[in-house]
Design brief:
Blueprint: H1 6-30, E1 45-49, H2 55-59, H3 62-71, E2 76-81, H4 87-91, E3 96-101, H5 109-121, E4 126-129, H6 135-143, E5 148-153, E6 163-166, H7 174-179, H8 202-216, E7 225-229, H9 240-251, E8 258-262, E9 276-277, H10 282-290, E10 294-298, H11 301-309, E11 313-317, H12 322-325, E12 333-336, H13 341-361
Parallel strand pairs: 1-2, 1-4, 2-3, 4-5, 5-6, 7-8, 7-10, 8-9, 10-11, 11-12
Length: 362
Amino acid sequence: MPRTTGIRALIRPLRQALRRRISRWITRCCGTPHPRTGPLPAPGRILVCQSNSRLGNTLLLIPLLQGLADRYPHARIDVVIKGCVHGSLLQSLPGIGHVHELPARGAAPRAMLKLIRELRRLHYDLAVEANSLSTTNRILLAGCGASHRLGFAGPDQCLRLTHAVALPSVASHSALQLLHLLTALPGRAPASQPTLAVYPDAPTRARAETRLRRALGSIPANRPVIGFFTRATGNKQLPNAWWQQWRAALHAGGDPPLLIEIVPPGGLPVHADQAAVSTTDLMELAALLARLDVFVSADCGPMHLAAAAGIPVVGLFRATPASRFAPLGNDCISLDEPLHPVVVARETVWRYDRRRDTRRSA
């Protein structure tokens, strides 16, 4: 992301400070500075608002959505997200009704007004703020006309919420922070160990299998397949030389695994002879990832998608805290700096050996 320079760099912190001061004044007058609980009739329609457009943040909504569906099994849960491409991943979850697309930044204000009118027409019983730092989320909650509103209390919470919790420690996992919202609602406490899940249908799984076999050829029954993704954003991305050393360490053993690289559309693999696969269909990608034995990636959306697909994940963290963004799933691990390629390869081998032993004993 380019750095802001010149006059704008001087004005920006002043504008942010002014916005915080105004927000805190509004909060003291009519907002929700402190946690609040109370009775809530079983809602028939629930709206969850998440204005962040990143794939990982969309996936980290899943434990909250699962918790709401478990607590209110007869409710229809709608979601507002930015970017309709992620909608299919949430649409497969139990209890999910419609996924509304938030207008892109710079879209005409009438697009936002049209969305708010549509939300008001649906008469939601409960609206949930899933991003405590988003002005857009607060506009949606204020405008949707829901009977009850759930979010995070605090000195900057300028909305009047009917149910609110204090934001947990900033060191706690992002998905666990969202799941903590449910403690403000009547009913049993949510699970303390959230997991991710997506549910590709049979035709999607068949397309993914075809794509994988086209990239790898025939796959021996006992030969592990390891997937990896190198294209994280910004400082999270590891250099190609690191991945080359990691590949070499994996091939140094007597029975090297099959490797498949997940590349963005139009991207090139890390090495000319590396088998690679690409798809723009995220549900198909989830089905493809579910077919692998282990997935290795820096902190990014595909890392969380692999965890949701139910396979062991080795997450590599160098610019973001693993405590907040670790992959959530069985046999997933997060490794922090220093990330030595040989050590990461050893962790990868240990996980696919365990996966293979489990399959043999099944």
